[in-house]
Specification:
Helices cover about 0% and strands about 50% of the residues. The protein is mainly beta and about 130 residues long. The strands form two sheets. Strands 2, 4, 5, 6, 9, 10 and 11 form a seven-stranded mixed β-sheet that branches. The radius of gyration is 14 Å and the shape is globular. The model has no long low-confidence stretch (mean pLDDT about 95).
Length: about 130
């Protein structure tokens, strides 16, 4: 059974930083591309960042490019999202997702393309 467990959310002031972590179990982690989505109240889930299985290829939404960094440690079955220079509009529930992709074939940017989801972690940025 695949499980994704996020941690690291919280309340931070604008301009601050947070690091989200997501640890996977029940999968051969380095066969999976990983990504982060987020959902703000009243809005649809949106793509934030993705990383291919080796960690070399990464992709970001324009709204977070230059502020967020996605990385992974395959030895620890964990993916990270370092969030710097946070803004109030970054407030959302952040979800870790996984997609079976043992070789890089392109980016998947919509929620329905991912089979496995974590429970989400709340990030709140105050102004």
């Amino acid at each position: 059974q695949v499980q994704l467990v996020e941690s690291g959310g919280g309340l931070v002031q604008a301009g601050g930083s947070l690091r989200l972590s997501c640890t996977a179990s029940g999968v051969t982690f380095n066969n999976y591309a990983m990504a982060w989505f987020r959902q703000a109240p009243g809005l649809e889930r949106e793509f934030v960042a993705a990383i291919a299985w080796r960690g070399v290829n990464t992709y970001y939404a324009d709204s977070v490019k230059g502020r967020f960094t996605i990385s992974r440690d395959n030895a620890l079955d964990t993916v990270y999202l370092q969030m710097d220079d946070l803004k109030p509009e970054d407030t959302a529930v952040y979800y870790c997702v996984a997609d079976w992709a043992p070789r890089f074939t392109g980016w998947k940017l919509t929620p329905r393309e991912y089979d496995y989801w974590g429970q989400g972690t709340q990030v709140t940025v105050s102004s």
